[in-house]
Design goal:
By secondary structure, the protein is of the alpha/beta class. The chain folds into two domains: 110 residues, Rossmann fold, CATH 3.40.50; 206 residues, no CATH class. It is 40% helix and 16% strand. The protein is built from 13 helices and twelve strands. The chain has a six-stranded mixed sheet with strand order 2-1-3-4-6-5, sandwiched between helices. A two-stranded antiparallel sheet has the order 7-8. It has a two-stranded antiparallel sheet with strand order 9-10. A hairpin with a 5-residue loop joins strand 7 and strand 8. The longest helix has 21 residues. The termini are far apart.
Amino acid sequence: MAKGSGGTSRSAALQAPGDSSPSPGARRVCLLHGDPEDRSIGIDLCANGHGPASPVAFIPLDAEDGWSGISRSVRSAAPFDEILIVGQQSSRDSLLALAQRCLAFGVPVHVASARFSSMTRRAPVVRHSGIPVLALRGTPQRGLALGVKRVVDVAGAALGLVFLMPLLLVIAAAIKLTSRGPVLYRQVRIGKDGAAFTFYKFRSMIENCEENPHREYFEQFVSRGEDASIDNGGSKVFKLVDDPRITRVGRTLRRTSLDELPQLWNVLRGEMSLVGPRPSLPYEWDAYKDWQRARLSVVPGCTGLWQVMGRSRVSFDEMVLLDLCYIANWSLAQDFALIARTFPVMFFGRGGH
C-alpha cells in the first residue's frame, strides 16, 4: 500500500492510516474524503459516531482518472465493513452518484456533507456535529423477505378490493354523473428497474386533456430546481396548483388520495406493492440522474415515506432521498407502520392537491 499525505495528493492511491490495526469489535471503515478537513470529519465520525469504528483506508476523491481510480483503491483496501464518504465541497449529485456506485461493493455506504442540509428536513437521517449523515444500503428486499412482502401485498390488495367495493362503486358513480369520460384512467408508468406498465387510477381530470402542463411543471420545478408554487394557504407546494384540468369530484379524490385505490389491481398483478416509492412517468424517468433512478430499484408502491411525510409539500430531491432511506431501512414492520400512518393523511388530506 502506498502511503499518502492525508488527502492532498491528486492520485486516488490508497492511503494507509498511520495508526495500528482497528480495535477488536470495531467496524472497519474505508474513508473516501475530499480535502484535509473532510478527512478530519471522517476520523471524528468514526471515533464518536454511532458505534465503534476505525478507518482502515483513506482514499481522496480528487483522482485524476475519476471513478476508475477510486474503484481500484477501494478494491485494494478490502476487507472493510462499510464505506464512509465525506465531501463538504462536492455537489450533492456527485456525492450521491458516487455512493450509488459504491453500493456495488456490497457493504453499507454512509455519506456526510452539509450539502444535504436543505433536503433532510423530513428524512430520517442522523446528524454529527450538525452535518447530515445519510445511510444507504442495497435493498434487503430479496429472497425470503421479498416473498413474504409479496404474500402481504396480495392478501392486503385482495381484502382491500373486497371490503372497499361499496366505496369504489360510489366513487365510480360520482365520476360518471359529474363529468364525461371513463371512470378509470390508464397511463403508462415506470416501475422497478425502469420497466413500463399500465397504471390505474380513478379519473380526476376532464376527458382527453393534455399532459403538457405537468411536463412543463416537471421541467421547471424538478429539472431546473425553480421555486415551488404557493397554495391558497400560503404554503409551498411542489405540484401544480389550481390545475384547470381537474374536475370538481377529482379535486376531492386527489386531496384524499382516493383516486389511487384502483392501484390495488396493480398490486395484485405484481406491478406495484402496497408500500414503496411512487412509480414515475416516462418523461420523468428519462430526465432522472443515475442516483435518482435508484429510487426505483424496488417495486413501486401505493404509499410510502413520501406520502406520510408531506406529499406535495416535499421537494423532488427530498422525495428521492425519502425513497432511498425507505429502501436502505426496509422491513415488514416499517411497511405496516407506513400503511397505518397513511390513513390519517388520507382522511385529513394533508399535503394533497
